[in-house]
Amino acid sequence: MKYSSTLFHDKFHTHSSGKRERCMNIGKSVVFFVLTSLLLTSTFLFYFLNSTNPLFLRHNQGPNIIIQNRSHKQDQEHAAQTTNVSSSKPYKEEKTCDLSKGHWVPSLDGLSSYYTNSSCTTISDSKNCFKQGRKDSDFLNWKWKPDECDLPRFDPRIFLNMVRGKTMAFIGDSVARNHMDSLVCILSSQGETPKVIYKDSEDRYRKWYFPNYDFTLMMIWSRFLIVGEERIVNGSGSSIFDMHLDQIDDDWSKQYPDLDYAVISDGHWFFRMMYLHEAGKLVGCLYCPEQNVTHYNSDYILRMAFRAAFKHINACNKCRKTLTLFRTFAPAHFENGIWNNGGYCNRTSPINEGEVNYGLFDWQLRNVQMEEFERARNIGKKKGQRFEVVDVSRAMLMRPDAHPGEHWGNQWMKGYNDCTHWCMPGPVDMWSELLLAVLRRKEANRIMSS
């Protein structure tokens, strides 16, 4: 935003009575008023331009997060102003507001959704819950409120200006695709409708292009991040996988050096029978019947997969321009069983934090991921790699009401419920709010440290 001070000059008229002393006193008062106004205005500008990014909180400072819309030119001017002011003093790390800790509050502004299930034409039928017969809509009327600050609504113009000329890829499973589809809907409804420039036959790999911003958005399918080969029995998939803990999935790793932003996530495929291999040798298994093999839990394999992926990124000299954005595990909410034995999710409103069971395996998976993320980020700092986190786990643990459930329209799996993916529109749209907040914070840090 461009800031400037304006001085208001009053015209004083004197009588021709020759009372010069009164005129001089008035003149002195005007000069004093003008000088005082200039001093106050300069002080305000200096404070405002030197204030922290709205997503930061100083010690003993209350919540302050005012985001205003700016054009691309104004954004550049503001960045230049901030850089000029900040570069004259050493950068100091501020106390950061934790966007992942908070609660869901009613949305009273009538802006709970960025789009509708009909206004966004790219929603897949399996996530279009209203199209598939869902009647209740209260799950749309909530917004995420961090404890120490406010989370701004997603501004497509700010996002698209920030990623102008760049490439962003979502890397992971179908929940990663769920996130990317949500982002496309938000951008299409308020920003620019992109062009599909690539789609594979199974619609697992997709590439969008926003011509007005020269921005490319991709989905790169990767169930495990590492190599996981499904065993084929009688010509069909067996849901049994040979996992190679020391081999990275080429589908994403070969494209990674060409990315500016990579949003990595995974987790929901790590609950199948698996045989673990390292250096060509069998080192363990998950859910296997053999007794002479070391048995592991899903969290161990998930840990090894993320450790291998992050290790690859940190060792990649060509990847140093890529900002790695790790999105934490998004929990499922099956009740009274799992997906194939009667489990369902038919709630219609969020639960509060006091009702959340942090002993659940979902939260354990999130913590395992975070441990590997922190480990990788500490190593990456020494190598020039950049890591950030988009932590959605705590917020989504409180949203058992936002899954398709029985409203996912799968004619081949009638009677089963989808309590893993997320209805669109819905709280999955908040993930993009967090994503943009993290990107803006990263940009503010870059400017202040330059």
Automatic annotation (TrEMBL):
Q: Where is the composition biased (Polar residues)?
A: 79-89
Q: Where is the Trichome birefringence-like C-terminal domain?
A: 151-437
The yes or no answer to whether the keyword Chloroplast is present is: no
- Which species is listed as the source? Lupinus luteus (European yellow lupine)
Please indicate which superkingdom the organism of origin belongs to: Eukaryota
How does it sit in the bilayer?
Single-pass membrane protein
Enumerate the subcellular locations listed in this protein's record, separating them with semicolons. Answer: Membrane
Pfam families in the record, alphabetically? PC-Esterase, PMR5N
Q: Which family does it belong to?
A: Belongs to the PC-esterase family. TBL subfamily.
The name this protein goes by in its record = Trichome birefringence-like N-terminal domain-containing protein
Per UniProt, what is one GO molecular function of this protein? O-acetyltransferase activity
* Residue stretches making up the Trichome birefringence-like N-terminal domain: 96-150
